[in-house]
Amino acid sequence: MAKDQKKQPRPKAETPKGFRDYFGADVTERKQMLDRIAEIYHRHGFEPLETSAVETVEALGKFLPDVDRPNAGVFAWQEAEVPGGGAGDWLALRYDLTAPLARVAAQFRNDLPSPYRRYAMGPVWRNEKPGPGRFRQFYQCDADTVGSASVAADAEICGMLAAALEHAGIQRGDYLIRINNRKVLNGILEAMGVEAGKPADDVLRTIDKFDKVGEAGVRQLLTTGRKDESGAEIEGVGLRPEQADPVIAFLTSKGADNAATLDNLRAAVGGSEAGAEGVEELAQISDMLAAMGVGEDRAIIDPSIVRGLGYYTGPVFEAELTFEILDEKGRKRQFGSVAGGGRYDGLVERFTGQKVPATGVSIGVDRLLAALRAKGLMGGEDEGPVVVTVMDRDRMADYYAMASELRAAGIRAEVYLGNPKNFGNQLKYADKRNSPVAIIQGGDEAARGVVQVKDLILGAKIAAEASHEEWKAQPAQTEVPRTDLVAEVRRILG
After folding, report:
1. Contact yes or no for 406/485 (Cβ under 8 A)
2. Torsion region of 429: left, alpha or beta (phi above 0 gives left; psi -120 to 50 gives alpha)
3. Which InterPro entries match (predicted)?
4. Can you say whether the dihedral through the CA atoms of 44, 30, 48, 315 is positive or negative?
5. Which of 143, 265, 327, 373 is 20 to 30 Å from 185 at the Cα level?
6. 424: phi > 0 → left, psi -120 to 50 → alpha, else beta; which?
7. Can you list the alpha helix ranges (DSSP code H) found in 270-374?
8. Residue 417: partners with Cβ closer than 8 Å, 6 or more residues away
9. Phi, psi for residue 92 in degrees, rounded to 5
10. What is the pLDDT of residues 332-362, one digit of tens each?
11. How far apart (Å, rounded) are the C-alpha atoms in residues 292 and 301?
């Protein structure tokens, strides 16, 4: 090597910022949960759909600020120049599962049934600044109906969401689906005399802060402004006090039951036709959910659900987990939202120029999995395979025969492939794999036609808890005929 040629530094073995690796139980438990949800979606007549992880930026609807900085929330790159000159397409990793659905619905509109009901599960990527609990890659789980303007489609999504949460393991009483309607809010804006554009957008952003600042805070933000917790002045929207009244009436209209809430909303929207239409849709959803057996202990009309109203065009819904957990400082808090969705009738229109109604829901996979673990329904160590130890290198075929018999019986099993000289290292390996059983057969056992079956779980328990007399009375290792290997392992595994 030439003296002036520098040695290349080794790459750092570290996960990129905003990303993470998933091991063992993380992968298997997520799959188990998603399989349960998919079973419910399939039972409701929804079909699975897997779209490409890469879409054109144009299809995603993300418009780049300039060709030198393709990072408007997505991971994007430009294809090489096309033959004959001209710039190539901008491509990007999908940032959600809804935009690809809109593209599919437009591209295959002549082939797909209408309405088209699909569910999709998979990773999405967002080019955002990472932070605690905020990752650039995460999983989503969506279900959508494209092509139906009927409010029954919205009601079905809500009912299906309740069934999916319960089948995943969330018990009744531990969740609540809250439902609102963008049309009702449109009626409120009409009653306020607020026109579309910036004034309406400012009102929407203010309403979205209701859960943080409360009724008094929203009123201040709609009118003259308020001071935040740090003492900084926050400018108000500038409405007159009487203009803010319909918003407050809307946000505080939740009654003792759905019927009372609907009556309050009818009064809040006044003579607005759009508002009245929204209230009537909520009434229909309430009736249909009741017919499905989804009572008000599982789904309610709640005007305080205002997130995403700038995107949705009709009913909106959010699934909230109501049980308490302890935060990192030991304080009690509610778990919060794990799913949300609503009607979005304008997304497919971008491709076709024609109105195509759609409604759907997205479940936060990581949050729901964390909730199941918080309830003790998941999160135990993933049980490893039975380990067939190696006492004699020349008898590897015999050891693989044992493993094959166990696998044929539906039992996870592997043969130890490390250096077999130190038998203690083989048992340490089995412990590290969280193996429940180790199989041992040396030359003497082989000659006698027997195997030693070591119950590693019982052995660890005896070592930790039992007296010497109990240890002798309950040996964790037993000798059985070679022909009884599978039966003995099944007995131990229960």
Report:
1. yes
2. alpha
3. aa-tRNA-synth_II, aa-tRNA-synth_II/BPL/LPL, Anticodon-bd, Anticodon-bd_dom_sf, His-tRNA-ligase, HisRS-like_core, HisRS/HisZ, HisRS_anticodon
4. positive
5. 143
6. alpha
7. 273-291, 349-352, 365-374
8. none
9. -155, 150
10. 777 888 999 999 988 888 888 888 999 999 9
11. 16
